[in-house]
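In this supplementary section we document a worked example of the pipeline. Step one takes a protein sequence of length 118 as its only input; no multiple sequence alignment statistics are reported here. Step two produces a three-dimensional model, which step three serialises into structure tokens for compact storage. The input and output of this example are shown verbatim.
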Amino acid sequence: MGQSAGFVLYRRLREHSDSVAQTKNLRLEHFRCRYLVVDDIWIPLGESLLISMFSPLWNHKLDGFGNHDPGAGRHNQQRSSWDELHPGRPWAKKLKPNARSNAEILSSISEFLSRASS
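The serialised model returned by step three reads:
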């Protein structure tokens, strides 16, 4: 028997909370969350709609927030932009550095935010 939708959602939010708490430059109390428990069939539609409506930075320029440890033997991948700017997740330290420098990532974010606000 599968886990309840509420439990699965709680576990995923807990993972996100842990990711923020592990960083050296973010504080969990600066974040807020709203959620709606729905049947699995509606999740992709709801997620696509929200991404389309709000164009979140982390879905366009700062990938990696929701990533998990890639597992043994797969640490030849590069760190995500998110992990470069917000170091602290223990498993991300094992990955190769991102091809883009922090300055390049920040510049890309700045351009994205400038376009989004106009």
